[in-house]
Specification:
- This protein is an alpha/beta fold.
- It has one domain: LigB-like (Protocatechuate 4,5-dioxygenase, Chain B, 3-Layer(aba) Sandwich), CATH 3.40.830.
- About 30% of the residues lie in helices and about 15% in strands.
- It contains eight helices and ten strands.
Length: about 260
Amino acid sequence: MTSIYLGHGAPPLLDDPLWMSQLAAWSAALPRPKAILIVSAHWEGAPAMLSASGAATPLVYDFGGFHPRFYEMTYETPDASSLATLVASLFPDPTPVLEHPSRGLDHGAWVPLKVMYPDADIPVLQLSLPTSDPEQLIALGRRLRPLRDHGVSIIGSGFLTHGLPFLKEWTIDATPPGWSTDFDLWAADAMARGDVDTLAAFRDKAPGMPYAHPTVEHLIPLFVSIGAAGDETAPPETVIDGYFMGLSKRSFQFT
């Protein structure tokens, strides 16, 4: 299995035929995973924690102001206790991974997965982001890398630009601001050159900062995906690009 980084959008992704078709085509082209471990921008917590592994764990509706139908959606995945055991085996003492007894999948997980695997027939767990340090997150990805040999897809879920406070248009096809395009093209170039060190220094080196990421949680799942890749410096494939409400939805697949 590969590791990937995807832009997860918000519930209105499910009203965007283009983005839905791109995600569906992507999943159809991938080997079918036996299980999915996803690191979402919307769960920061240390030490590292796993979501509840029981079947049909309720979703987290961690958003506001959208149509009521989004709060009624379900995504009832199968029991993921075997995946939880496998992930836990990669976290030896004194840094074990903990399982949250009730936390379900947040929208950074279930929104894109609802499009990519609509039958909800693959076990899914979320892993929290225990730090915002790129080097530590790459190391976390390396620790997770053996999961791929067990047929587990490792997904970093965020948004390549996420300057929500600075958006002026709120339509799907809004013209992207300069800070969004500047950061997007800079990151794409760094990834194409396999320059992980430059990418990890985005706070200081990237154009468009801090507007592109006034907080960093939507970018940093990318570093978990990089660490989980077989060759961290090999250029990934850009599978999806373009913008949604002016934000970069560029998404990568690592070989």
